[in-house]
C-alpha cells in the first residue's frame, strides 16, 4: 500500500499545480474578455465596477467548478484502467 | 550553432518517440507455446523490469517472474514477461499477473493444432540487455490474420497532440503579446544609444576634419 500512497501523494501535488495554474489562467482570460466587452460595447459607467461584478459572477459559476475535473478525470481514468486491465 | 540546435531537437524527439513506443500498448497475433517461471536478477537492465507483485516485498535483489513463450503469426518467436506494474510506471495498473498466467497456460497450443491469440503488451524485446515486453492481456482469436485497430493508441496520441498544441499556441500568443514587445523596447533602447554614439562620433570627426587642410 506504500506504492499506492506514494502515487496518490505525488499525483495530488502535481494535479494541484495544474489546478492552480489553470484557475489563474481561466480567471485572467475571463478578465480580458470583460475588459474587451466594456471597451467595445458598453463604454459607459464605471469600468472597474463592471469588471469586478463580472469576476464575482465568474467566481460562483459552473465553469469555475468544472476546473475540479483536473482531479476527477485522472482519478476516474485510473479506476477505469484498473477495471479493464484486471477484471474485464 | 545550427548543428548543435538540430542535434538537441533530434535527440529530444527521438527520446519522446522511444518513450511512447515503449509505453503504449501493442498487439501481437501469436500462438502460445509455453508458460513458465524463471528467477531473474535485475542488473544493468533493471529499468526494463517492472515491480514485484503488489503487496509483496519489493526490496529483495532477485525474484521469480512469469514468462510466456510464443510464436508470432510471422513465424518468429517472442518471449513475454508477465509482471505486475502495480501503482507504478507505466500506468497499466496491472495486478492480475497470476490470473493472466492461468489464462495463457489455458490457451497453449502446438503447431499441429494452433490456437491463435492476441497478446496485448508494452515494452521491447532486446537480446543484448535480456529485456522482454510485458504481457497485459490475452484473448483467443479465430486465425492468424486477425485485423487489429489500435483504438487506444489513436485516442491517446490524438489527445496528447491536442494538449501540446493547445499549450504551444497559448505560449506563442503570450510571447507575442508580452515578451516580444519588451525585447523590441530593449532593442530600440540599444539602437538609440548606438545612434547617439554615432552622432557624437560624427561631430568629433567633423571637428577633426576641420583641422585638415582642404
List keywords for this structure.
heterodimer, A: mainly alpha, 4 helices, 88% helix, elongated, B: 214 residues, alpha+beta, OB fold (Dihydrolipoamide Acetyltransferase, E2P), 3 helices, 43% helix
- Alpha-beta content class of chain A: mainly alpha
Helical region count of chain B?
3
Largest sheet of chain B: 5 strands, antiparallel
Oligomerization state: heterodimer
Principal-axes geometry of chain B comes out as elongated
N/C terminus separation of chain A: 23 Å
**Count of domains of chain A:** 1
Mean pLDDT of chain B: 89
Query: SSE string of chain A, helix = H, strand = E?
Result: HHHH
User: Helicity level of chain B, as a percent range?
Assistant: 40-55%
**CATH topology category name of the largest domain in chain B:** OB fold (Dihydrolipoamide Acetyltransferase, E2P)
CATH first level of the largest domain in chain B: which class? Mainly Beta
Question: What features would you describe in this structure?
Answer:
The complex is a heterodimer of chains A (88) and B (214). With 88 residues, chain A is mainly α. Chain A contains four helices and no strands. In chain A, helix 1 (2-42) packs antiparallel against helix 2. The model of chain A has no long low-confidence stretch (mean pLDDT 90). With 214 residues, chain B is of the alpha+beta class. Chain B has three helices and five strands. A five-stranded antiparallel β-sheet of chain B has the order 3-2-1-4-5. Chain B is elongated, with a radius of gyration of 31 Å. The two termini of chain B are 50 Å apart. The chains are: A mainly alpha (88), B alpha+beta (214). The A-B interface holds A 1, 3-4, 6-7, 78, 81-82, 85-87 and B 51, 54-55, 58, 86-88, 91-96, 99, 136-137.
Amino acid at each position: 500500500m506504500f506504492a499506492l500512497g506514494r502515487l496518490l501523494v505525488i499525483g495530488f501535488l502535481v494535479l494541484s499545480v495544474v489546478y492552480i495554474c489553470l484557475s489563474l489562467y481561466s480567471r485572467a482570460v475571463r478578465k480580458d474578455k470583460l475588459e474587451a466587452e466594456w471597451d467595445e460595447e458598453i463604454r459607459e459607467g464605471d469600468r472597474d465596477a463592471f469588471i469586478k461584478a463580472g469576476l464575482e459572477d465568474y467566481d460562483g459559476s459552473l465553469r469555475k467548478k468544472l476546473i475540479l475535473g483536473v482531479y476527477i478525470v485522472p482519478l476516474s481514468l485510473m479506476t477505469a484502467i484498473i477495471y479493464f486491465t484486471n477484471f474485464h | 550553432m545550427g548543428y548543435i540546435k538540430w542535434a538537441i531537437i533530434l535527440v529530444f524527439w527521438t527520446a519522446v518517440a522511444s518513450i511512447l513506443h515503449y509505453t503504449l500498448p501493442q498487439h501481437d497475433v501469436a500462438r502460445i507455446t509455453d508458460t513458465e517461471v524463471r528467477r531473474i536478477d535485475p542488473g544493468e537492465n533493471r529499468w526494463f523490469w517492472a515491480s514485484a507483485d503488489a503487496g509483496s516485498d519489493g526490496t529483495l535483489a532477485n525474484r521469480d517472474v512469469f514468462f510466456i513463450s510464443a510464436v508470432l503469426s510471422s513465424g518468429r518467436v517472442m518471449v513475454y514477461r508477465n509482471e505486475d506494474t502495480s501503482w507504478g510506471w507505466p500506468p497499466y495498473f496491472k495486478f492480475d499477473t497470476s490470473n493472466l498466467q492461468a489464462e495463457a497456460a489455458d490457451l497453449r497450443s502446438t503447431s499441429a493444432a494452433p490456437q491463435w491469440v492476441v497478446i496485448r503488451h508494452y515494452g521491447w524485446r532486446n537480446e543484448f540487455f535480456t529485456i522482454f515486453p510485458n504481457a497485459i492481456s490475452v484473448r483467443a482469436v479465430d486465425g492468424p490474420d486477425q485485423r487489429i485497430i489500435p483504438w487506444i493508441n489513436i485516442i491517446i496520441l490524438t489527445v496528447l497532440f491536442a494538449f501540446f498544441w493547445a499549450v504551444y499556441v497559448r505560449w506563442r500568443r503570450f510571447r507575442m503579446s508580452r515578451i516580444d514587445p519588451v525585447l523590441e523596447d530593449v532593442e530600440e533602447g540599444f539602437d538609440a544609444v548606438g545612434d547617439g554614439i554615432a552622432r557624437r562620433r560624427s561631430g568629433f570627426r567633423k571637428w577633426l576634419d576641420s583641422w585638415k587642410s582642404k
